[in-house]
Specification:
With 107 residues, the chain is mainly α. The protein is built from four helices and no strands.
């Protein structure tokens, strides 16, 4: 049962990061002219905040479980790592898309 919990946890924790990396290639102008892409980004932001809330709950509540069962200790450690990844990398990629830079022509 513990193995299934770990598989589900890592699947649902890594999936938003992979999907966010897909959105990293788009620029502000892409979102400006594509309504469907804009809505996909909004939905991903909501899902990312839900995943972040789940990570916070796991970190807060697993401290109690780790005291009674040491098998959940790697899950607690992973929760801290995913909190850092979600806060600094993934959500910032979605909230602030990169600017479009024109290439300069050489004369």
């Amino acid at each position: 049962m513990i193995i299934l919990i770990y598989i589900a946890y890592y699947f649902f924790s890594i999936l938003p990061i992979i999907i966010t990396y897909r959105f990293r290639k788009y620029t502000i102008s892409d979102y400006h002219y594509n309504k469907r892409l804009k809505w996909q980004r909004r939905i991903m932001l909501v899902l990312h905040y839900i995943a972040l809330a789940v990570q916070i709950i796991i970190v807060c509540k697993l401290k109690i479980l780790v005291r009674s069962n040491q098998d959940y200790y790697p899950l607690l450690l992973s929760g801290f790592i995913f909190l850092i990844i979600y806060n600094f990398f993934s959500i910032s990629w979605l909230e602030s898309p990169k600017e479009y830079l024109k290439k300069k022509k050489w004369k």
